[in-house]
Structures are given as C-alpha cells and as structure tokens.
C-alpha cells in the first residue's frame, strides 16, 4: 500500500500537464470528508490516505504519494437533492430563504447561483416543498460549503483562497474588549 499524506488544494502550484497525467481516484462526499481512508487509484494501486485531522478533500485536489506520484481527486456523482425556486411563483429570495433554513439545521449544503444541493433527507425535502421549492433527486457530484472557517486553511472565492486573520486578537471577555470597526479607518488589509 502506498501512503499519501500531502494534499495540494486544487493542484495549486503544479503544472496543468502534471495534474492531467496524474492517476485519479473518484470519491463520494462521505469519503472525502474523512482524513484517513483507503482507496484504489485508476492504475490499480492501493492507497492509504493519512491527512491531518479535519482535512476535507475536494474534487480537483491533488494528493502526493510517498513515492512522489500525484493522484487527482474527482468528486463522484452521488444521490443528492437539487433545490430550485418554483419557476412559476418563486424568486431568488426563495432560494436564499431555503438556504437559511437548511443552514439553521447545520445541513451540509452546496450553494450554486440558481440552485442548492443537499444529501437526501425526506423530512427536509417535505419542508422545502412546503416552502414552494422544487426538490428533485439527481445523481451529481456534491461539494458542500466548508463553513465560515473553511477547510484548507481558509475559504475560497472563485479559485483564490484567503483567511481572515487580521493580525490582532479578539478577547473572549466582552467587557474588556476594545470595540473594533472594520472599514476605512482600519489599519490592516482585508
């Protein structure tokens, strides 16, 4: 078994030709949110993936094996619920409202400009339909949002990631914390 313990988010820093030539593994969301798992790549090699705890693997990420070989991760199609606003009576606000209610339930959710995706759940599907949303079961890759603190050390905006460490600490004691407004008067970058 070949060990993989390094992950390159979206293959950043690698020449595209190297990523295209890499063997592949196709994994569903359940597996990609684990930091330790066994799998077989497209060339038949047995791989043991051992990443730092809490690491989430995304479609397009590249694993580096102990022998230096690269393995490109593909997100496997899986059953998901595709949620859209009713084309006759709905609006973009309905989709925002649905995302709010799903987020309030801490459901992994993939956000797209014109639809949402969640893992199958008949109770949530009924709730969404009651909100006049269109809910359809489909087989597609599932890449839910990583949350406010993100995976890979920050969150992503259209291909570039950044974190929000502003170089100052925030006190847990609200009575002694100095108020801090983020805006033109700030002395740090955003």
From TrEMBL:
GO biological process: protein folding; protein-containing complex assembly; urea metabolic process
Subcellular location, principal: cytoplasm
Chain positions covered by the region annotation Disordered: 146-190
A single GO molecular function term of this UniProt record: nickel cation binding
Coiled coil regions in record: none
Bias type Basic and acidic residues, positions: 162-171
CDD domains: UreE
Location of the protein in the cell: Cytoplasm
GO CC, alphabetical: cytoplasm
Listed Pfam families: UreE_C (PF05194), UreE_N (PF02814)
Oxidoreductase found in the keyword field: no
Family under the similarity heading: Belongs to the UreE family.
Function: Involved in urease metallocenter assembly. Binds nickel. Probably functions as a nickel donor during metallocenter assembly.
Protein name (Swiss-Prot/TrEMBL): Urease accessory protein UreE
Gene name as annotated: ureE
